[in-house]
Amino acid sequence: MEEPDEKEQKETRVWYAVRTFYCKEKFVADFFTQKGLNSFIPMRYEERITPDGKKHRVQIPAVHNLLFLEKTQSEKQISKATSDCPVPIFFIRNRDTQSYYEIRDKEMIEFRAICDPNYEGTLYVDAAMAEAKKGQRVRVTHGPFKGLEGKLVRYKNRFYVVITIVTLGVMIHIPKWYCTKIE
């Protein structure tokens, strides 16, 4: 008979971080969709000027060559399903165990919320840079990101809440009075 903790662990969703090359993350996401796999690409809006001088907003990947794949099958089955991808990809691995780096669904839900392309106060940085910044653990208590937990840091005279996932750090501008310190 299974323990309740084991049952909960099996029911929680897990995500993998996938690297690709040549800015082909949208192509790889379409490939995953054809294979019946769910993926997520962090996106942002960019204003571009057409040759005739008009401005228009275009949605582009916030971080090139990085996407996230939901674990709906075993690691072996996913590896087999993705092995015939026409673009080179690799799964980011855990340094200690050499298995695919697993991102818990709770982290991924928070990450997807702060990667909203309509919110303009978001910066994407290297995880090492994000971790190097001094700050304290906080929970957002007001606004659209209420309940979000991260590290409050000061960057260019503005306050940001930093979330780190795998090799990516996401800094989201949130006023410091919207946050409470976590002990």
Compose a concise summary of this entry.
Helices cover 23% and strands 37% of the residues. The chain has 183 residues and is α+β, with helices and mostly antiparallel strands. The chain folds into 2 domains: 100 residues, Alpha-Beta Plaits; 65 residues, SH3 type barrels (Roll), CATH 2.30.30.
Overview of the molecule:
By secondary structure, the chain is an alpha+beta fold. The protein has two domains: 12-111, Alpha-Beta Plaits, CATH 3.30.70; 119-183, SH3 type barrels (Roll), CATH 2.30.30. The chain contains five helices and 13 strands. A six-stranded antiparallel sheet has the order 8-12-11-10-9-13. A hairpin with a 5-residue loop joins β3 and β4 (55-61). The longest helix has 10 residues, at 25-34. The protein starts with a helix and ends with a strand. Residues 1-10 have low confidence and may be disordered.
Features:
single chain, five-stranded antiparallel β-sheet, Alpha-Beta Plaits, alpha+beta, 23% helix, 183 residues, globular, disordered N terminus
Quickly count the domains: 2
- Rg over CA atoms, rounded to whole Å, is 18 Å
- Under CATH, the topology of the largest domain is which? Alpha-Beta Plaits
Unreliable stretches:
1-10
Distance between the termini: 37 Å
Mean pLDDT: 89
Q: Please give the count of helices.
A: 5
Give the number of DSSP strands. 13
Q: Tell me the strand percentage band.
A: 35-45%
Order of helices and strands: HEHEEEEHEEHEHEEEEE
Approximate helicity band: 10-25%
Which CATH architecture of the largest domain would you pick? Answer: 2-Layer Sandwich
- How would you sum up the global shape? globular
> Which CATH first-tier class of the largest domain would you pick?
Alpha Beta
Main beta sheet strand tally, sense and closure: 6 strands, antiparallel
Strand order of the largest sheet: 8-12-11-10-9-13
Q: What structural category do the secondary elements indicate?
A: alpha+beta
